[in-house]
Structure prediction request, 745 residues.
Amino acid sequence: MPNALAVAGLLFQYRANMKNNQSIIDSAISQEYEYGFTTDIDQEKIPPGLNEDVIKIISSKKQEPEWLLDWRLKAYKQWLKMDEPDWSKLNYDDIDFQAISYYAAPKQKEKLKSLDEVDPELLETYNKLGIPLEEQKLLSNVAVDAVFDSVSVTTTFKEELEKHGVIFCSFSEAVQKHPDIIKKYLGSVVPTTDNYFAALNSAVFSDGSFVYIPKNVRCPMELSTYFRINAAKTGQFERTLIVAEEGSHVSYLEGCTAPMRDENQLHAAVVELVAHKNAEIKYSTVQNWYPGNPKTGKGGIYNFVTKRGTCLGDNSKISWTQVETGSALTWKYPSCILKGNNSIGEFYSVALSNNFQQADTGTKMIHLGKNTKSTIISKGISAGKGQNTYRGGVKIMKNADNARNFSQCDSILIGENCGAHTFPYIDVRNPSAQMEHEASTSKIGEDQLFYCNQRGISTEDAVSLIVNGFCKDVFNELPMEFAVEAQKLMEVSLEGAVG
Amino acid sequence: MLIIKNIHASVDGKEILKGINLSIKPGELHAIMGRNGSGKSTLANIITGRDNFLVTKGSITYNGNNLLEMSIEDRALAGIFMSFQYPVSIPGVNNAYFLRAALNAKLKHQGKSEINASDFMRLIREKVKLVNLDESYLSRAVNDGFSGGEKKRNEILQMLTLEPELSILDETDSGLDIDALKTIAEGVNNFRTETRSFLAITHYQRLLEYMHPDYIHVLIDGKIVKSGDISLANQLEEKGYSWLEK
Ligand SMILES: Nc1ncnc2c1ncn2[C@@H]1O[C@H](COP(=O)(O)OP(=O)(O)O)[C@@H](O)[C@H]1O
Ligand SMILES: [Mg+2]
Prediction:
């Protein structure tokens, strides 16, 4: 997939031809952001500021039912009473929530039925992103729900999915067409009061994606969403809900990019996953939001995301894979609540902090059911002045007999001015629990680069070789379509040959 | 092919090489002997282009080109190989994959097409036998958790695969038991041709018994104080280095 390439583009395409290793590293880590264009589209935007009226406008624009407006307003009132969290290692100036516009949408005359009706400017944007929607219909087996700023624009492959009873649509559409499901599950995994940013999202979310997989259905294709922030001084607050009924299976991928702007833009999403008995959800993210100016640190996305899944039924499984290379700030802890007996939670993460980027990311695994199992593999890469923090919690509750957790947190440092930090929190309340934790910090050293150079391997290739090797365990978890490209990129074809 | 003229080199302002002259022709095996700290590895690092050494005087040409102006990888691609005294490990990077990347860099430099994974595996399985290393080491991370001897075998495996013109063996013998030493010496001997040259650095005489150098040079305090044939090594074995010191 192009998006996997995009990530790689940021990470691995160094085009320097210099003698000196340090200058190659410097240039490698000051790579320009490729997706920094803006698109000239007629925007419909609410003026900056947040109050009850703004929420009412959002709700009415979306012709929402009364209960949803009430839900939003309740969340808003709770948010007003909450404080912005300050426990992370992230350093940033206070966010002025009144300076942000909470709704921006490309102007459209009416609902779109096919790609042909989409604004050509928009399609051009997607082409620039490397997601030719038109071609995708023919070439690939990936259904795409594209969210542009706050509104879901178009969904491909809808009919094919409908045949299997799979619902994959924008959140707004789901509110209109499937209100019962939304009402039942909205906020059931991430309650409005969960945290400051989740409360804010609940009050002002404008769109997002909705997926419903009926009983015993294996979703016939990868589902994929691309999020793009375009409008200036706009917050993006999307909401994703995936419900997998008993015995069903789905793999979902989201990709994100944003234009270059001098001011920071806020992104505060909420993702809720529900897996019933014997169901499996695989959720993969390739996050490549604009990281800010590489030299000054100006601009970039503030990414405050709450992602959580509940393994509600026995033998269910939720797996998070994330490749986080963008954003100025990343605050994100995709988590699993393992309620069902024998349920499984997994978290595979690669997080890169380059130049002035800061990432504070990790996971929470909460074991409630018996024989529950969780796996955490976290790979942090710090370069430039980047600061990378792993923060992970594993909780084994009283009734979770024979729970098992394996955690591995590795960090790699490129250069002298970056940092890596690891905060594992472990809370075990059942003596039968088996816990394993491994951690390492390594550095791409001058001696390693010299060794590679002495074998005729250029520094840029050496860095990508070392970083790829480091991330291998996580890249292997990406879904097939994306893994194929990722593999090409990592040139790991030989790895398989050797076994 | 390699002509070193009056090389002076320093690190952190301290002069380590104090006027080295050395000329190596195709097919020759030169040995450099000297105590710890005499500057042997520094000389190897200067030839291969390690950044942290400063050449203050002198010149090195390689096949007529000014070597000191070439980057580390250009020197490597031009056919200079060093078996490291202390090979670094590269965790996470598959050993065979690494070696294939190196071979492909060379093939690409020569304008040839890259070797695919299965051809490479066929090639490498042959080479591995020559250094008596188990095939399982190919799928491990580069030098990661290798013993001293295994690292040295791995270095020689790389040499045999990359087929350099000039191989610098920096204390490849140290830390090896006698069987391993024989294996490696044999590997090097079979690899010798009329065009391939070697610079073997050691402070033991025993490697040279197996390798038959054409010339032996004694390095003391950054200078070559004496050159000769194999009989010089025997003299050093008997009398040590002190008779050569002023
Ligand atoms: N990177 C370095 N920084 C400071 N001193 C060094 C460095 N490398 C070598 N030296 C010094 O240079 C001298 C020669 O070292 P070296 O060439 O490694 O000797 P040999 O290989 O003959 O044992 C020693 O005194 C050593 O301490
Ligand atoms: Mg030495």
Observations:
- Chain B has one domain: 2-244.
- The pocket of adenosine-5'-diphosphate (ligand 1) is lined by residues B 11-12, 16, 34, 36-42, 52 (CB under 6 Å).
- The first strand of chain B starts at residue 2 and ends at 11.
- Residues 95-109 of chain B form the longest helix (15 residues).
